[in-house]
């Protein structure tokens, strides 16, 4: 599975959204499913998918799917 697909599946599992969602347009609080509680579940899913531990500032800064990709890239994951 590609890293892009892993990130998408983390969003699907963490936010409980459809696998065919428009990921590029996802923004924190931009959809009903992405609230503060789901945000922490999403962080957990991303950490498990890539075997990384996000720093607190990265958790706070993760405001959209594209930003999440940039943050995960900082931990040595290629997209």
Short structural description:
Helices cover 54% and strands 0% of the residues. The chain is mainly α. It is globular, with a radius of gyration of 11 Å.
Describe this structure as you would to a colleague:
By secondary structure, the chain is mostly helical. It has one domain (3-73): Orthogonal Bundle (Non-ribosomal Peptide Synthetase Peptidyl Carrier Protein, Chain A), CATH 1.10.1200. The chain has 4 helices and no strands. The protein starts with a helix and ends in a 6-residue tail after the last helix. 22% of the residues are buried. InterPro entries: ACP-like_sf. This is Acyl carrier protein. It comes from Deinococcus caeni.
The CATH class label is Mainly Alpha
**Gyration radius over CA:** 11 Å
Give the number of DSSP strands: 0
Largest sheet: none
Total domain count: 1
Computed structural class: mainly alpha
Helix content: 40-55%
Question: What spatial form do the alpha-carbon principal axes imply?
Answer: globular
- What is the count of helical runs? 4
According to CATH, the fold-level topology is: Non-ribosomal Peptide Synthetase Peptidyl Carrier Protein, Chain A
Using the 3D structure, state the CATH architecture.
Answer: Orthogonal Bundle
CATH homolog superfamily: ACP-like
Poorly predicted ranges (pLDDT <50, ≥5 residues)? none
Beta-sheet strand percentage? Answer: under 5%
The SSE string, one letter per element, is HHHH
Protein name: Acyl carrier protein
């Amino acid at each position: 599975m590609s890293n892009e697909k892993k990130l998408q599946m983390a969003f699907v599992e963490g936010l409980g959204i459809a696998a065919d969602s428009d990921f590029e347009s996802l923004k924190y609080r931009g959809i009903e499913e992405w609230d503060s509680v789901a945000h922490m579940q999403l962080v957990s899913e991303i950490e498990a998918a890539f075997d990384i531990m996000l720093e607190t500032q990265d958790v706070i800064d993760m405001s959209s799917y594209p930003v999440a990709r940039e943050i995960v890239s900082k931990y040595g994951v290629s997209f």
